[in-house]
Amino acid sequence: MRGHKGFFWVQSLVLGAFLAVCWGGCGEKKPPAAGQEAPIRLVYYTIGEPDADLPLVEDALNELLLTRYGFTVSYNKIGWNDYEAALGSLLNTNGKFDIAFAWTENYLANALAGKWLDLTPYMENLCAETYGAVNGKFWKGATVNGGIYGIPTNKELAVPMYFLYDRELAEKYGMDLSKYHTLESLEPLLRTISSEEPGYIPLFLSNSHVNFAAMGGYEYITATNIPLVIRTADASATVVNFFDTEYCVGLLDTLHKYYEAGYINRDASMRTPFSRFEGEKVFLRLASGGPESQISFSNSFGYPILTERVSGLVVTSESALGGVMTVNARTEHPRECALFLNAVNTDPDVRNLLNYGVEGEHYVLNGEGQVEYLTQDYRGVTYTQGNWFILRTVAGENPDKWKLYQRFNDHAVESPILGFIPDLSGYPAECGRVSRVCEKYESALMTGTVDPEEFLPALREALEQAGIETLQQELQRQIHQWMEEK
Predict the structure, then answer these.
(1) Which of 37, 112, 367, 443 is the most buried (most CB within 10 A)?
(2) 3-state class (DSSP) for residue 315
């Protein structure tokens, strides 16, 4: 939709109306009693569909915040499809807000542009407890030109790739899933499902650009529509075109072989990761996630899943900055913003309220002290709102979940370019052309739909003409300079 000006014109009208209403009326505080000064009220925006009980949670949150910290918060959620544009409009029109959810590209770009408040001075006092609570590798990823411009969510440090198997089928055929860690090794499993279970898709793929690169030990330097990567194990961080690597050539051959054999869904290049058809059965999917993810994947897809990790535990800037809470550089209340961010990361009552809602209304605690949901009328978006390690676990989860996450993080290795900030702003033409080439070829190639012997050379030639070598040289120059300065 990015190319349709009409869509953006209509969307901007909708967002403009939304923001006009919210700046004037969302979360308006009640008039204080005579002679009483109204408490400061921060305006907080985050992503997620507005819940039916969001006002109820906001009231409970503010009762807690006012008692303990002396201020309140206007808690606003903007839907998944609208948040990016709404936040951009707020920032570009100097809209009045205090705190907002950001993510990798958005966080870095707006930090460099001076849109986020430099929180470094608060790390020694108001946010000192948060600084100690959040894993140090997250701070490396969040540091921009020596400053910290947001609080990264303290969660899993790495988001490796997993094979997601239908548990019922895996157990039915006695499959030892620990033997299969590469795409090539899967052939006997997929052959069995194809011949014995014709009602199942052996391997489901979509056009979502599954991170096959990570399975080969590679990581993207910038956005995945610029296919320039380094090997994580390469301390020199040599920049290469992913489509020129031997690993990629073998990967594409395997995918096409599987597609031709009928193992991959025929509409893979046209499917999105969220498109699901009623009654559609899948044996194997690929996804990224954290430790103990079988429960969350099973809940998401609606059937029991067994997982097998198939890539390394690598901390990249992207994984470290998947969720960040930022402060508007134009806020009039920096102290209260710092206090709120510290509360979200260190006060279990605040954190659990944001995540699960009001105890007794939205959930109860079972005999083991785990959360049992009562309603769907409120759900926090966990990765957007602070420290996971002070959250209660949910019924069915391992009670020692956070100890497992800690061990997981302890074993994660740092990317050689963790904290590096690529800057291709001086090459908009090359970036645009390279992105368009990838958009044309990648979905078909990365789902096995087309023959790589024919289409891979065409892709390489188109990338060369688009200027990928210029981008490759520039990123290599920046990485070398960053390494020397570091």
Answers:
(1) 443
(2) strand
